[in-house]
Amino acid sequence: MDLTSLRCLINNISRFIHLVTWRVSETVPAEKDHRSIASLLKHLKLVLDDVADHKAPLGEALSKECIKLDVAVNEAREFLERWSRRKSKILCVLQTKPLLLKIQVSSVNLSCILCRLFEPSPSTSSLLNAQICMQESQNLKIGELSGYIEEILEIRKEGRIPDAGRLMLIVESLNLRSKQDLLSEFIAIKKERQKAEDSKTTGDLDQISQTVDLISYIRDCMVKENFIDRNGLRIPPYFRCPLSLELMLDPVIVASGQTYERTAIRKWLDHGLVTCPKTGNLLAHKNLIPNHTVKALITNWCDVKKVEFSNNPDNADVCSVRRHSEHIPCADDLQYPPQVRSSTSIPSLEDGHGFEALSASASTAITSIDYLPMASTEISRTSSKQGDASNRSGDITSSYSPSNRVSDSSTSASGKHYNSSKRMAEMVKNGSHSASRTLSSLSELGSSNLTTTSDVEKLIEDLKSASSELQSTAAREIRFLAKYNMENRFIIGQCGAITPLISLLHSDVELIQEHAVTALLNLSINEKIKARIGAEGAVEPLIHVLRIGNAGAKENAAAALFSLSLLDEYRIKIGRSGAVKPLVRLLQSGTLRGMKDAATALFNLSIFHENKARIVQAGAVKYLVRLMDPTSEMVDKAVALLANLSTITEGCSTIAREGGIPLLVEIVETGSQRGKENAASILLQLCISSPKYCRSILQEGAVPPLVALSLSGTPRAKEKAQQLLCHFRRQRESAVTRGRS
């Protein structure tokens, strides 16, 4: 057998070690275990390098074990890349243990084979190194903290009371000391359980449910230990927010009738959770109604107890959703700091490289993703530069805010309804309205009115009609109803509109197809409806629209596929169902908005390692390199996607072959802060991949801009620039040493 599997393993070990060295910190759960495994792999890599240097053919057993370890290392690396501070620390520890144990077991087996391989040459140092690796891998202790957690979960399952000392050890190890840390962990676990319930993964659900019970128990223990005392006074339980465990400063009532601190429940809702934290019941709506009675009682209590009743910075600031500052991992070593347009909008390509937030949190941030209200094909053409098009610079943006929600409710209460598809048709045909006035009216009607079950059922009947006109009108109205209003989405999804909308994706009428795909896109904002859209077989019909639809339909099909790809299982399915090639074609020849939609979808697909090769093989790199031209409006977007593709060998070689190196060096020198950061990351991957690329980068004059970047870039850009400069220095020192010898 050839050395391919061995070289692939060495390359992936290098990337894992690099990731752990520069990414893992005390904030990452199971930090010690990751560093221990990285140390073991460093020693093993020395032995594997010796084998590769001899260029001797591998035996079948050695080749198979290399492949096994390669798979294990890749799984652990990808898991670490996906972890973010928004995810559960306890679950991370539990899920990390089997991944690292798999590496340990495979390392033991590989070390044994290597020892036998070097036995005929006992004088070499390789045998000694192999023996050291075998001993170290056998003695490595992995999963101690995970063992403690599993022990307490078992105790709780049996109904016994856990040891307080062991419980505090877990709290301290995972840095869950404060109320806000506990709240974040509680929300993260609840979010994981919601995902598991949607995907019906029983095994995961059982473990997550036990973990929810554990964190609830820890929170209760903290309350009993006077954890929430204020100014030396114990807060009455009815004045304490069930979520934040703090004195409520701005109490609000949710649909279930329970009262919470506004910032805490808003954080809960912003994470996409749709149940009441206390009762577990599904919330019929997400309106937050001020509880003036409770607030008056709390104010009175504070006056009597002489407690200052004012906004608590610790409570308000920490409880607020910080989508601008949270780090969500993605790609090679989590090099991209997330950028989000606003606290209520989805991360987008327009913001440069905010892609990494997409896999974990984008779906919870969306509130409106319909783009261009179209009364007719003619209006669509004449008004493409006005109306909602201005809200969407090639990405998915939000126009939802708390104030919008209030107006939604008030408008509905006033009796303004827009529910009849026939009324919509009459409005469209009304020639007395100008295009812009019609667009404005449609947008207002779609965004500020609630619908009813009976109205939606009538629309669904029209969707199933044999009349193309009725189908088009009904699909368009559902599109508008679902555009802004969360309650409308829930009602439409519950009434069974998804299946007929999916069937219309195969319509021969382009406008019907476009309205149907955009309606599905808007409905997919709701997490549960999104899962239902995928479960009812929308992937292949969406790809069909992406292949043969008109320009608007293709763009929205790309956006809908992106929305579905936020669910891990569909990220895999979409990639395997043939979506990559039509997305690359849209990247090649679509409008600016279309190219941005395609790039967004391709980025999210590229988070799944297997899809990276598909994207490269479909020819995306060539078009992305062209889009790095300084005159392009997509420089930052192209560089961000290339940063993901550069984590595979084929991606690096294609970037170099397509002439990407000079452009990357230019971006490091003159690009935006985000562009510089991602360009430096790609250059680092190229250098790690091959000394030949390293020389090309040096020949392009990369050192001066990298020195400047290491001094004045973003924190992560500085880190990448410093790593590159260190790499150049090591290469030079190595060349000098070889020359002397």
Automatic annotation (TrEMBL):
Keywords, sorted A to Z? Repeat, Transferase, Ubl conjugation pathway
* MF term (GO), any: ubiquitin protein ligase activity
| ARM repeat residue numbers | 496-538, 578-620, 619-660
For this protein, what is the EC number? 2.3.2.27
**So, what pathway does this thing act in?**
Protein modification; protein ubiquitination
Q: Give the catalysed reaction(s), semicolon-separated.
A: S-ubiquitinyl-[E2 ubiquitin-conjugating enzyme]-L-cysteine + [acceptor protein]-L-lysine = [E2 ubiquitin-conjugating enzyme]-L-cysteine + N(6)-ubiquitinyl-[acceptor protein]-L-lysine
* Region: Disordered, residue numbers: 380-440
Pfam families named in the record: ARM_PUB, PUB2_N, U-box
Report the leader peptide range: none
Give start and end of each U-box domain: 234-308
Q: What is the role of this chain?
A: Functions as an E3 ubiquitin ligase.
The protein's name is RING-type E3 ubiquitin transferase
State the organism named in the record. Sesamum alatum
